[in-house]
Every structure is written in C-alpha cells, then in structure tokens.
Amino acid sequence: MELLILLFAAHFIGDFYAQPNAWVTCRNNHHIRSKGLWRHCGVHLILNSLVFSVVGESFITSILAILTITLSHFIIDVLKSYQKSTLLTFLLDQLAHIIVITLVWVLTLSISVPEILAFTKQLITPQSLIIAMAYLLVCKPTSIVISLTLKKHTEEIEDGGTGLVAAGAWIGYLERILTLSFMFMGQFAGIGFLVATKTIFRFGDLTKSDDMKLTEYMMLGTLLSYAIALFVGWNTMELYKALN
Fold first, then answer.
1. Based on the structure, what is the number of domains in the chain?
2. Which of 67, 88, 112 is at the close of a domain?
3. Quick one: three-class SS letters along the chain?
4. Can you tell me the mean pLDDT for 180-206?
5. For the whole model, what pTM was predicted?
C-alpha cells in the first residue's frame, strides 16, 4: 500500500504542482512535438524514479515500472492535447493515469486476484454503501424533489429570473453535500456557518429585489434543501450505528 500511495503522490505532484501553465499551453498547441510535454514527462520520470529508489524493489522491476508509467503518461497526455479542455476530459485523463498506476502497483508487487478481492471487500461494506447512498440521494434526486415542490412558484418568477444557467442546482448540490459531511463528522456548528454564509451572499439579492415572491421562493428552496439533507443525514447515521 505504501508504494501505491507514493506513486499517487508522485503523480499528483507532477501533474498539478510541477507543471507550469506554459507547458500545458505548449502541449495543447504543439501536441507530440511540444517541449512542455517532454519536460512534463521528464518530471514524472524523475519523481517515479525517486519513489522506486525509496521502496527498494529490484532494479529491473523498478525500471520497467518507471518506463511504463512515464510512457503511458506521455501517450495519455498526447491524446488529451487533441481534445477540448472540459471537466469530462480532465476526469477521464486522471482516471486513465490512476488505472495505469494501479495496474503497475498490482504487477510490481505480484498481488493476486484473491488479495485484490479481499482489499476491495474491506472497502465495500454495508456502512460505506449507506454513506455513498446518502450522498447520491441529496444530489440529483433531492434536486428533482425540490424542483417539483416549487414548480408552481418557479413558473411565477422565472420570466424575470437572472443568474447563471444551472448554477442554482449546483449550489444546492454543494450545500447538501456539505451539510451531510458536517453531520457525519459531528461538526454541527459547520452547518450553522454554512447557513450564515449563504444568507450573507443572498442578502444583497433579497434587499435589492422588490418582489416578495422571489424572497419567499429563495427561503422555501433553501429551507427545503437543508431539511432534506438533515433528514437523510440523521437516518443514515442511525442505520450506520445499527450495522456496527
């Protein structure tokens, strides 16, 4: 496990802390001929070499692992350079790197399939599945429930509405995820801080608006969002305790 953690650390340092924006721009403009791309892969080569010099694997095994990670990183980044810079391409790029690193870790340590399954079984427990389900519930399903609940009021005010498209939905996702996280950590004061922060940012909109409907609509949406997050959170915590 130490090797996997070190390899992930090397990857994230190389990708996010040791890669100037100029290298990224150069890669996107010149692709495989980019000097920035070659330098970036050189950084990963050095970082992975440091990792394997620490873990003490055999020389041949270390060289093969280092070259595999570096070469795969080069290929993945070249392919990415031809794609538009979006959240999806970023996530797919990182997922590809993580898969390669994990496979190298498995092959380097000769980890058997039963060992992988045993490790996975430790991670996937009824408790962890309940927590994951709670986060899933407070995002899109809850957003739909709130949208349907406030549908009548939405139709009344949407003609004069302003703001970023879908921003309200994402704000709702984040506030419910944070509320749930604060509950799981036992940091209930954080929920109060979250409510106060949102109130401060919304205060300007509410005081500038002469429309009482908009004010009431915002209050209904916010209170309903927190109410559902708290309901899901409390019930999840009770189920979690019951399974322990």
1. 2
2. 112
3. CHHHHHHHHHHHHHHHHCCCHHHHHHHHHHHHHCHHHHHHHHHHHHHHHHHHHHHCCCHHHHHHHHHHHHHHHHHHHHHHHCCCCCHHHHHHHHHHHHHHHHHHHHHHCCCCHHHHHHHHHHHCCHHHHHHHHHHHHCCHHHHHHHHHHCHHHHHHHHHHCCCCCCHHHHHHHHHHHHHHHHHHHCCHHHHHHHHHHHHHHHHHHHHHCCCHHHHHHHHHHHHHHHHHHHHHHHHHHHHHHHHC
4. 74
5. 0.67
